[in-house]
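Notebook entry, cofactor series.
This is the third protein in the set we're modelling with a bound small molecule. For this one the ligand is NAP. I'm keeping the input format identical across the series so the outputs can be compared line by line later. Sequence and SMILES below, as received.
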Amino acid sequence: MTRKRRLGATDLETVPLVFGGNVFGWTADKATSFALLDRFVERGGTMIDTADVYSAWVDGHRGGESETIIGEWLERSGKRDAVILATKVGMLPGEGGDKLAPARIAAACEASLRRLGTDRIDVYFAHQDDPDTPQEAVLEAFGRLVEAGKVRVIGASNFHAARLKSALDIARETGLPHYHVLEPEYNLVSRSTFEGELQDLCVDHNIAVTPYYGLASGFLTGKYRSKEDMKQSVRGGRMGELIETRMGVIEAMDAIAEETGASLAQIALAWLAAQPGVTAPIASATSIAQLDDIMGTIDLDLSSEQLDRLTAA
Ligand SMILES: NC(=O)c1ccc[n+]([C@@H]2O[C@H](COP(=O)([O-])OP(=O)(O)OC[C@H]3O[C@@H](n4cnc5c(N)ncnc54)[C@H](OP(=O)(O)O)[C@@H]3O)[C@@H](O)[C@H]2O)c1
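Returned structure with ligand:
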């Protein structure tokens, strides 16, 4: 049975795995992306995470490639009402300025809506904090979009605890919309950004957390165990340090895979989904086989003893 979780205090619900959209048009071509999105929804998937800036880091790309593919898929599949669409503003400069300048938020939202071929974004994230724009002005800009029905709820990505807290305080004092979702980096080998103050804040304020890099870009699937393995993917080049320093985590996961029959990717994501405050980890896949594997996490329950062993590793 597919289990859904509520996104904080909103009326949106998702299964505990969000499809990470940075692969669309990058490591997954259009046909593969369509097949992945079809399969995701077929298997009960509900929420898709993208950003205007995906995949501007690829030679010849300008940003918007991922949103464009999602938009074409929505048109072809007719699945707009079956999915929660999350996208982001703040890392792709353009009309209206850069970062979270109010005019940039307004223009970027229009551009995202156009590429996605929809009239509303379900979760609109500030992709990163902007120290140069007053937080009240940022919330006012988001507020205008909410009022116009172009955005349902807003989220914050890559915020530090103090800045998330001050934004929540401003929203409470002014009646402006407040961040309902936080998207931090968080996984079994990258814990310090989220654990502690930020995690406590989210738990206390019922902020939904959708952590990214759930698989540490593939390291936590167990497919990178030696320098030779790094050639398997364009992402492999970043695995050197993890292979040198974090194989203890993979060994602990191997033991739990033996006990449960689950794959390492499923275990990594199930651990995340069991952490306080976490609603649904984000992970991406570049093939149907990978997607089928990670979707298996939705029905995986690890025992508290297994979760503790992973936390300690
Ligand atoms: N808010 C932010 O600032 C931010 C930053 C980064 C990412 N994100 C979001 O988080 C999402 C996830 O990040 P990510 O895609 O970079 O990393 P990830 O989910 O940690 O790693 C996913 C990658 O691991 C590999 N993989 C997945 N399942 C596998 C399996 N079963 N077996 C073997 N390999 C498997 C695939 O890459 P290969 O096939 O290429 O090996 C896949 O693309 C992004 O798509 C994006 O939506 C947000």
